[in-house]
Amino acid sequence: MAPIFLLRRTTLAALALLALMTATFFLVRLTGDPVDLYLPVDASRAARDAMRAQLGLDRPVVAQFFEFFVNLLRLDFGASLWHNRPAMAVVLEALPKTLALGAIALALAFALSVVVGVIAAARPGSAVDRFINVVSQAAASVPDFWLGLMCVLVFAVNLRLLPTSGFGGPAYWVLPVVCLMARPFGMLVQIIRGSMIEALNASYVRTARAKGAMEGRVGFVHALRNALLPAVTVTGDLAAQFAGGGGVVEVVFGFPGVGKLLIDGILRRDFAIVQSSIFAVAVVIFLINILVDMLYAAIDPRVKVE
Amino acid sequence: MLHSTTLHRSALVLLLGTALIAPAFAQSDSITIVVTDEPKSLDPCDTDLSNNARILRNNVTETLVNLDPANGEVVPSLATEWRQVDELTWEFKLREGVTFHDGTPFDAAAVAAALTRAGNADLACEVGLATLSGNVFTPEVVDAQTIRIKTGTVEPILPNKLSTLDIGAPSTPADAKTREPIGTGPYSLAAWNAGQNVQLVSYDGYWGDKPAIANATITWRAESAVRAAMVDTGEAQIAYEIAPQDATSANDHAFPNAETSLLRIDQSIAPLDDKRVREALNLAIDRDGLIGTIFHQDAQKAMQVVLPSVFGYNPDIAVWPYDPDKARSLLEEARAAGTAVDTEIVLYGRIGIYPNSSESMEAIQAMLLDVGFNVRLEMMETTPWLEKLIGPFPADRPPSALQTQIDNTEGDAVFTLPNRFTSGGNTSTIADPALDKLIADASAATGDERQSLFRQAFNYIAVDAINIVPLFHMVTIARVSPDLNYVPDVQAGNEIKLATMSYK
Predict the structure, then answer these.
(1) What does UniProt give as the signal peptide span (chain B) (predicted)?
(2) pLDDT tens per residue, range A217-257
């Protein structure tokens, strides 16, 4: 891969990151004063003022921003008010869990949707195709929150097959993965089905058939390879979304990932946690985008990374 | 159709899978308890926050005295006796043979260090900022088992206040918060797995009776339905704060949680500066209609902001009747007298302040509209709501009533009144010199005089001034596993009494 490509992408990403962090800095401060939330209601005005001064919140926002910016360049995100330790350390504990959860959910969703999408595309309009259509559309549109609670009710409370929530061995991952999978699975089945039907009717497939290629080979080698391209693009976007964590799913299942951390950080006005989570997630999204570009080039020789 | 062998194989796979992944069920010496939130810190000086106190208080750390949940009376804990030496000095005799979890002996110097630490403004300790604020406490070590505490101004109920001061080991850092509390309690901290749980293990060197349960895990889930389900599946034995709509099991226990819900009237802005209008607000609310529907059926109608168990509670204030006709006529009367009763009044609510908080405000809004108020409801998230709750208030604000609830777990009215109902109180919307004097006199008095003055103050707030729309003394629902001996009491909102629990 051309080093110039990486350099250009990294520069652009760094600029985007600075813009994002600037926006985050101001947006999070627009949402209210952490001191009111952090101190007991009975705390005196003097105590509130002292804490504001201690946190530097009494200074002009521009001065606060300047300090934040300088610290950002040194990758110093400050201490979390709630956790009372460096915010980035808290984020880096949560991030791998979210990435693992997202990767598993997305990989399974992708694999499953390829199989199901191809089956549906094999006989468009058939009963099987219509059934897959209904299921995949439902999966794509069901709210995470509702699905999560239903899964708890059915698989944990009634069937006693899985733990309701928490973090631990493989069993604890099943329900969050299933809930996170639903939407990408539904979307990818729709995409793969559509592009597969198109590919199977394309001239190069007809040519392959005419030359006597086996039906399986036609489907999986000739058509699928091309049909996968839009799915890969969408998967890349989904992966970028997942890097921020399935916040709702993580909250429902008490899964200690970065999505839950970010939601808690926002609710608690823990500026350092919000800023460092967003920074970490943005870096991951940048890396995912580069990976998707490379993957795209690997699948379609017409695309060159340069 | 599937062959029977396929079916058998599927069943086998399912069974194997189940065996591999089934959640671990509790053992007789272990317990798991699920609460709503991760603790903010595990520092002994942050126990004014119930999330922290629930884990620490009387489990990991102890206080000099406790309050009896039945009547609020001060009872011994790490101190065995106490007396007021003079107006500004209290003396406490400390229990002998007590050690901290790190082996150091508990003595007067440890109490002095804990008190000084909680008052350190740089640390911003919750206990120092809330319960101990407004006075200066100077500890004096008399001998290892005797401590005197001098106060800046007279402090007639110092023992009550010290029931909130959890005492950590002298090795607790003096200039920073700790995440590894070392106390004298029946349990020591085994681990705080950030984001997941806190684990406690019983302490062999405990001075009191050894608890029946050796290992306790406290975990947290945001969703009420999930918390409730965890008890059903055996993943937890106690789940706190179950929403009424999820409380569908015989294992759900409602207990008074020391909170009183109310609307705080901002009485300095017209038309709420007219007492008739404030009275109409109260008469327009069908409290009986709200109980058992939106509020839990065990909630009690309130007329003041503390529970009957709190010293100073006035049992003689009659609950407002539901009288929409009288409310309408009062509004007419005020209108005739020139009060702008048609001005829009904002009802500020807080999302999730208690279960069904939004629904309760919608119902109240409807009741107020029904008698002719012009009311707009604004439900807010906590931080913007706090800006409305805590002064100073902007001069050009609209007339408003604010949904809030007030708790008092310290057993005396002084923990409720000064900050909320005096001219200088930072959440007060009443500035009345007569009430200021009443509360100040009551706070400095003792015995019957104290009780009588506080009763007068409560009557003044509710009946003479009508600064509030009192609603209910609230309850919390906990789901408790049927094989566990545990009945939550009024302190259960702030204290998970692990040492009192055992399996049947």
Answers:
(1) 1-26
(2) 776 677 787 788 888 888 888 888 887 768 889 999 999 99
- What is the rounded CA–CA span in Å between residue B342 and residue B335? 8
Q: Is B321 on the interface with A (CB under 8 A)?
A: no
Which residue is listed with tokens 């080979």? A217
Name the domain boundary from B162, B191, B220: B162
Residue B272 lies in a domain: yes
> Has residue B171 been placed in a domain?
no
Q: For residue B95, what is the domain's CATH number? A: 3.90.76.10
Q: What is the CATH number of the domain that holds B266?
A: 3.10.105.10
Q: How sure is the predictor about A183, in pLDDT bands with cuts at 50, 70 and 90?
A: very high
Amino acid B69: pLDDT: 87
B229·A256 Cβ contact <8 A = no
**Chain A neighbors of B353, CB-CB under 8 A:** none
Closest CA to A95 of B5, B194, B165: B194
Residues B297 and B342 in one domain: yes
> What is the average pLDDT value for chain A, to the nearest integer?
88
User: What ipTM did this prediction achieve?
Assistant: 0.84
Q: Are residues B55 and B105 in the same domain?
A: yes
Q: Judge if pTM exceeds 0.80.
A: yes
Domains in chain B: how many in total?
Answer: 3
Mutate to test the interface with B, among A164, A173, A262, A269 (most CBs of B within 10 A): A164
Query: Which residue from B468, B65, B405 is spatially nearest to B256, judged by alpha carbons?
Result: B405
How close does chain B come to A254, measured CA to CA in Å?
A: 5
**Which ranges of A123-257 would DSSP assign to H, the alpha helix?**
127-141, 144-151, 171-200, 203-210, 215-217, 224-243, 247-252
Mark whether B31 and B92 lie in a shared domain. no
B202 & B269 share domain: no
pLDDT grade for A304, boundaries at 50, 70 and 90 = low
Polymer length of chain A: 306
Window 389-418 of B: residues touching A by CB (8 A cutoff) are: 389-390, 392
What is residue B434's predicted lDDT score, i.e. its pLDDT?
A: 96
B17 touches chain A (CB under 8 A): yes
Residue B398 lies in a domain: yes
Q: How far is A288 from chain B (nearest CA, A)?
A: 26
Query: What residue in B sits closest to A53 (Cα-Cα)?
Result: B122
Nearest CA in chain A to B229: A157
Write down the residue that tokens 């604020």 correspond to.
B133
Q: Which of B21, B40, B129 sits opposite A171 (nearest CB)?
A: B21
* Both tokens assigned to B172: 């607790």
Residue B397 lies in a domain: yes
Contact A47 B427 (CB under 8 A): no
Neighboring chain A residues of B40 at a CB cutoff of 8 Å: 82
Nearest CA in chain B to A37: B383
Q: What is the domain range of residue B226?
A: 4-43+182-255+476-503
Q: Give dist(CA B388, CA B394) in Å, integer.
A: 10
Condensed to tens digits (0 to 9), the pLDDT of residues A106-126 reads 999 999 999 999 899 988 899
Q: Supply the DSSP symbol for B464.
A: I
Are residues B376 and B450 part of one domain? yes
**CB contacts, 8 Å: B131 with chain A:** 42
Positions in chain B whose pLDDT score sits under 50: 1-26
Residue B62 DSSP code = B
